[in-house]
Design brief:
This protein is of the alpha/beta class and 299 residues long. The protein has one domain: Rossmann fold (3-Layer(aba) Sandwich), CATH 3.40.50. It is 24% helix and 21% strand. It is built from seven helices and 15 strands. It is globular. It starts with a strand and ends in a 6-residue tail after the last helix. The model has no long low-confidence stretch (mean pLDDT 94).
């Protein structure tokens, strides 16, 4: 089975034909947390990978607070996934970024409140360091591909390497005061989906790195009039919608190329051994299902 999962965010249900190559099969995986979203086996130019649309198959069917993050990440691990490239569509807080830009964040602020955030509820494991927050090797590969494409067919697309993304509960957008608070806290972007997804991947020793395409201006960053019935009610200027769509459509190609570039490499990164301390102490065994179920190394 493929070892990489492309985890699609906003707009993953409306990609151009052929963006993911050929879909070979689809399945939903039964997990201790319910069924995962459908997982599709895809092939692009001979490279096989898995694809999952976080919010739905035919449209934006499920908002961020109600995505079953644990089921999706557990399903990925059970299918043998070792690397996840996730995309997200945040708003711009920093004035250095604008709608239609691509960003490879390197840090997170978690302001979610009501989401199950660990596989290890009621257990004595899971005390994991969150540095680096995202897999550096996977980010390096994404950066390399994005840099090449910036000077090639994607010329003119603004790509930012690094930045802090704040994750809020949603589904409502943030107030101006909340955005001012997040800006003072160091956030460059604000979205609703990377938490707890990134932390759950670390708990199961899966490398995880996001690609963000900026969808709008966060509240108060610019003076934007309310536009009745429009997407984000006016926080995305009409003239910038095409750039946002183009940025979203560029993500699968970047993600697939980056995953292909390191597909044969052995993982030598902190995310690959995040649970090693518990293994050395004999608290957990080799099968991740036992970690989640609370079974020790000997059972």
């Amino acid at each position: 089975m493929p070892r990489v999962l492309l985890l699609g965010g906003s707009g993953a249900y409306a990609l151009p034909p052929g963006a993911l190559g050929k879909r070979l099969s689809s399945r939903r995986v039964r997990t201790p947390y319910g069924f995962s979203n459908p997982v599709h086996l895809c092939e692009s130019a001979g490279f096989r990978f898995l694809f999952l649309s976080r919010h739905g198959e035919k449209g934006y069917e499920k908002t961020a607070p109600y995505v079953n993050y644990r089921a999706n990440i557990y399903a990925a691990k059970s299918l043998g996934v070792t690397r996840i490239v996730a995309w997200t569509g945040p708003g711009a807080i920093s004035r250095k970024v604008r709608p239609g830009d691509l960003v490879l964040p390197d840090d997170l602020l978690d302001f979610t409140r009501n989401r199950p955030s660990t596989f290890y509820e009621g257990k004595g494991i899971g005390f994991l360091r969150q540095f680096p927050v995202f897999c550096e090797r996977l980010r390096d590969s994404l950066r390399s591909v994005a840099t090449r494409r910036e000077g090639g067919r994607d010329a003119g697309k603004r790509i930012h390497f690094g930045g802090t993304s704040a994750c809020t509960e949603g589904p409502r957008l943030e107030t101006p005061a909340e955005i001012r608070f997040l800006a003072r806290a160091g956030a460059d972007l604000v979205g609703m989906t990377l938490c707890p997804e990134a932390f759950l991947a670390r708990e199961l020793e899966i490398c995880y790195a996001p690609v963000a395409y900026v969808t709008n201006y966060a509240e108060g960053v610019r003076k934007m009039p309310y536009r009745r019935g429009d997407l984000f009610e006016g926080t995305l200027p009409p003239g910038e919608a095409a750039a946002v769509e183009a940025a979203k459509d560029a993500i699968p190609g970047i993600a697939i190329a980056a995953a292909r570039a390191i597909a044969g490499e052995e993982r030598d990164c902190p995310c690959a051994v995040s649970m090693e301390r518990y293994r050395k102490r004999g608290v957990i065994g080799p099968d991740f299902r036992g970690w989640v179920a609370g079974k020790g190394a000997g059972r």
